[in-house]
Amino acid sequence: MKRKPRIVRKLNLQNMSSNDVFQEPIHSYLRLSATTLAARIRQLEIGVEELMQVFIDRINAVNASINAVVVDRFSEALQEAKELDEMLREMSQDERDELEVSKPFLGVPFTAKEAFSVAGLPNSGGLVARRDHIAKEDAVVVHRLRQAGAIPLALSNCSELCMWWESSNRVYGRTCNPYDLSKIVGGSSGGEGAIIGAGGSVFGLGSGKLQCLCCSSILSLVHFLFSFVLFYVNI
Whole-model pTM? Predict the structure, then answer.
């Protein structure tokens, strides 16, 4: 039986302190860029499973305060990491060096906005009517990151249907700014910004919109015709 994706509980604002996100010690791996992590993995200086656990621990340490990650696949990511470690140990250094071109992000975890489909995970876009919808396949950009060797770790919060300037919805609740928990994080990719800003993800997938601020509320909907995908990347 396929494991039901774990959905992270909504934020309890009453238990939220002023700024406890950065009270936890920061592991040295969390300060490294995606390309540096990938290079050290190819050199067998960092184990993929070890790295995955560091980011999982960080997410668990900060997410209760900021509610940035709303769905996780920690168990699957750890299993994929373990398999990668075994594969890398069986390769020669020359073979591992060649992976820099074919799989430049091999073993590096990433997060993605919940509006991006990741096979087997919820894909509601924060809409109550879609709260039980499970993606059957990866979005193109997720698929390409997997091909580059990256491992999806979790999904982050967004505004309802990615339409608003705040990452809050009736499915997952509101995401808070890790630098000031009384502030919002903007939207619609605020969950990604928050978890990366809190050191819980090295890079992630978000999206943005081009919008004419002078248009009426109806005409402004044309900005969806110009949606574009962008990376929040620590290179």
Answer: 0.82
